[in-house]
Amino acid sequence: MSAVEVLAHPLRPLLLSAARSQRLERGLTRMPATRRVVDRFVAGPNRDSALPAVRELLRQNKFVSIDYLGEDTVEPAQARRVVDQYLALIEVLAGLSAQDSEATARPLEVSLKLSALGQALPGDGYAVALGNARVVAAAAAAAGLWVTVDAENHTTTDSTLAIVRELRHDHPETVGTVLQAYLRRTEADCRSFAAEGARIRLCKGAYREPEPVAFQRAAEVSASYLRCLRILMAGKGYPMVATHDPAMIEAAALLATASGRGRDEFEFQMLYGVRPAEQDRLVGLGQRMRVYVPFGDQWYGYLVRRMAERPANLSFFLRAATGQH
Q1: CA-to-CA distance for 67 and 143, rounded, in angstroms?
Q2: Which residue from 29, 31, 170, 218 could staple onto 6, CB 3.0 to 4.6 Å apart?
C-alpha cells in the first residue's frame, strides 16, 4: 500500500467514526478475540498490571511514556479522579529508575490528555484543566519525571497549546507537548515552540479532521511531517520523532546529523506492541527510543484510532486477535 493509498483508504473515515461509537464499543468489548488485541497493545487495565511492562522496557534500555487511558471527561469529580490516578502513578514511577540530574532526557514520563482533566467542561473547562494539569506537572517535576501533553482533535488545539505555555512558564524543563503534522497550522506551531526551546513530540495525527484545517492525502501529511521535523531539528528544543514509518525514521536520522544533533539530543517514539523489532534495532544503534505505554480500561478509542492512523494496521490488529504473529 502506497503512502497516498493509506490516508485515502476507505476504511479510515469509518474507523475514525467508529472510535466514537458507543454501540460498536459495547459490541467489540464483548468479543473474546478482542481481549487478545487489548493485551498486546495495552499494558493492563490498571496501574499495578502495567508496571511489569514498564520495568521490562527500562531493562531493555528503552525510555517510557505512560498514559492513563481516558478522555472527554464530563464531570469535575471525574477529572479529579484522573488527577489522583496520575499522582499515584508518579509516586510509583519515581522509584523505578535513578534520575541523572545532568541528563538531557528523562527515562520516564507521563502523557496527559487535557480532555480527561476537564477541558471540555462547560464554562470553566479551561481553568479546570489548567488547574488539574498544574497539580500533575508539579508532582512530576518534584519526582524528576517529564510530562507530555497529548494532542486531540483540532477544536482543542488553541486551548491545549495555551495551557501548555502556562505550564511551561512554571516547569519549562518538565512539560512538553504533541504537535500533529496533518494540521495545516503545525508548521507555524513548530517554529514557535522550537524557538522557545520546547520539547515536542511530532506525530502525523489520529483524528478525523476537515480539509480546511488538515491535509487529507498521505503524501501531503508526510511532506508536512518532514517540513516540521526539519524545523524542530534545527531549533533549540528537543524533538521526539513519533513514527513507525521507515521513511520518516531514516529521514529523522539524516536531519539530525545535518543539524549537528547528537543521539542524545532527540529521540524516537513508538507505540507499545508495535514494531518491537524495530524498537530493538534503534536501541542497538545507540538511538534513544521511547515506548508509549497505555493502560486502563478505557482502551477502545485508543485502539481504533491507531488502526485509523494507518488502515494497513487493521490486518496487524486482526492477526493479534487471532493469535497470529
Answers
A1: 17
A2: 218
Give me the residues paired with residue 110 across strands. 66, 147
What is the number of other CB atoms lying within 10 angstroms of the CB of residue 292? 21
Instruction: Name the DSSP letter for residue 150.
Output: P
* H or E element, residue 64: strand 63-68
Percent of the chain surpassing pLDDT 90:
70
The model's pLDDT over 109-119, given as tens digits with 9 standing for 90+, comes to 999 999 999 99
Catalytic site includes residue 100 = no
Catalytic residue, from 67, 150, 208, 305: name it: 150
Q: Where are the beta strands (DSSP E) in 81-222?
A: 108-112, 146-149, 175-180, 199-203
The sign of the CA dihedral 312, 29, 270, 176 is: positive
Which position among 201, 208, 261, 310 bears the catalytic label?
Answer: 201
Residues 6+ apart with CB under 8 A from 124: none
Whether residue 26 lies in the annotated active site: no
Cβ contact 202:142 at 8 Å: no
> What cell does 299 get?
482502551
Instruction: Judge whether 65 and 293 are in contact, CB under 8 Å.
Output: yes
